Input
Amino acid sequence: EPEVTQTPSHQVTQMGQEVILRCVPISNHLYFYWYRQILGQKVEFLVSFYNNEISEKSEIFDDQFSVERPDGSNFTLKIRSTKLEDSAMYFCASSRVGPGANVLTFGAGSRLTVL
Amino acid sequence: GQNIDQPTEMTATEGAIVQINCTYQTSGFNGLFWYQQHAGEAPTFLSYNVLDGLEEKGRFSSFLSRSKGYSYLLLKELQMKDSASYLCAVREEDNAGNMLTFGGGTRLMVKP
Output
């Protein structure tokens, strides 16, 4: 079954450093998303991306964050100048266009620990 | 504002039936989703309701009442592997972004 792949599975970084989380969405999906889940809390929407541009973003997704699709397969989340409160599991997801477009398939997540 | 409420924890016995409720108050509504999440893993899709009524898929069923802002997930013939968190999520608008707002999740423990 097709899956969304994320790397790294776990990253530890120092406060103030930049982090890039990478995702390979399912190949025939055209919508891409980042969600995060702080330990013990709910899954929160960050951003959605379609046709090489952001289609929606939440209040969490401020100037510290950016997304990019640098090539035909990767979708990245960059966090500049990380803060302690950025420690969370970051989930990438993708969905189709047309039938089944409502269903998001999530990757296994990248756990970010900011020290 | 958005408010999606689910019980925090539930316990049930292997082989039994359990119903997990979800109530929502959102500015718009364009579908309700249930996802399963095992500890430390990604959410996986279980069901989707956009019209009132019951959707059945094997041991899992999901019900929606839009007028009441209410949904439930019904799990039959519980198995130990069903121990997980069950996340209710609402899609508020019919747009391309497909932004989902999640509830806090219900942690289900299945006991022998």
About this structure: Residues 60 and 111 of chain B are 18 Å apart (CA to CA).
